[in-house]
Amino acid sequence: MIRFGPMSITLLICAVQGLLLAALLLRARRNRAANRWLALLIVAVAALMTPYIIGYAGFYDKWPWLSFAPLSYTLAFGPLLFLYTTALIGQRPARLWLHFVPVAVQFASYAALFPLPLPTKDWWNTHVHAPVIDPLFDIAAPISIAAYAAVAYRRYRAYRIWLDSNRTDGVDYEPNWIRNFIAALAVIMLIWAGFVIAKWAVPARDYFDQFPLYVAFSVLVLYLGIGGWRHSETAFPPALTPPQPDPAEPATGRDWAAQGADWLARLDSAEWWRDPALTLAGLARLLGTNTSYLSRGLGAAAGENFNAVINRRRVIALQVLLESPHEHRDLLTLAFEVGFNSKASFNRAFLEMAGMSPSQWRLKSQKARGA
């Protein structure tokens, strides 16, 4: 008898909501490649939940031939996690198909058995699948997720460094969602590994004992769907590979502090720092050099990276404006005038450089004039 009880309904509601969110991700206009990878991950997790949804409702008791339905794609979780992360920051790994060879094998191990007669499937499950193949997949899936999560996290860390070194508005693209997304998969992996160990330790455990694990998968589906949708339209700047040094400009023997000082003088003279769209690559073009040399020169002359060099000049210019008794425009208008292009990047830079918020600085200046 088919009966959807609290267990099957709980998982079903979460799976359906996850699939709806996956559909919304597929319709997003930005980050199309990244959103497709995330949508596939949500679908893969929902597919993993499906045998338990229908199992708790009694489908397998009524239609035992449903066994070995190819709905387990756990070996795709790691690759999809990695590909979503890299696509979001504008990178494309080579030989994509290689990442999906393990899950193709996993799919084949179920799909080849699914149409066979039930006695054949029962024999295979008793003698081969349950004692050999299923434990291998149980081990391989968490290892795959852990390995891909580690590589994805390194890419995330490198991207944060790139943002800070190449742009002055990196705070507007703070990629904390990528970090949280990776952490969510890692937590689920640990919970999953705990259930795998429990199943090995107590073979008598049945699929009803797995319900808490699939509640965790349900939470993961909702978290990935909602979080992914919230960030689906965020235009993360692609992390471009810096150009190689120009052989015509030998690096050896150069006085980088003097060279950096010269570049800073030209930057101040032309007031290029007022351009809100200025990037490390753009400034390098204006100075007739490349990003590698420019970063080295700025570090030697100012002891700061590009982001700090540019934003420090903007903050100083704003402080000068605020010291004028005739300046009554609002802070955001002044911030845009000196080169900031968002409230978030302005507030963060000002606090880091001045040690207080812009409004506190304005109040301090007013009190100083009054005294």
What does this structure look like?
This protein has two domains: 6-230; 259-370, Arc Repressor Mutant, subunit A (Orthogonal Bundle), CATH 1.10.10.60. Helices cover 68% and strands 0% of the residues. It has 15 helices and no strands.
Keywords:
371 residues; 15 helices; Arc Repressor Mutant, subunit A; mainly alpha
Topology:
Elements: H1 6-27, H2 32-56, H3 59-62, H4 77-88, H5 101-111, H6 118-166, H7 176-201, H8 211-230, H9 256-270, H10 280-287, H11 291-302, H12 306-322, H13 331-338, H14 343-354, H15 358-370
SS class: mainly alpha
What is the rounded distance between the termini? Answer: 85 Å
Number of domains: 2
- Along the chain, the helix and strand elements come as HHHHHHHHHHHHHHH
Short description:
68% of the residues lie in helices and 0% in strands.
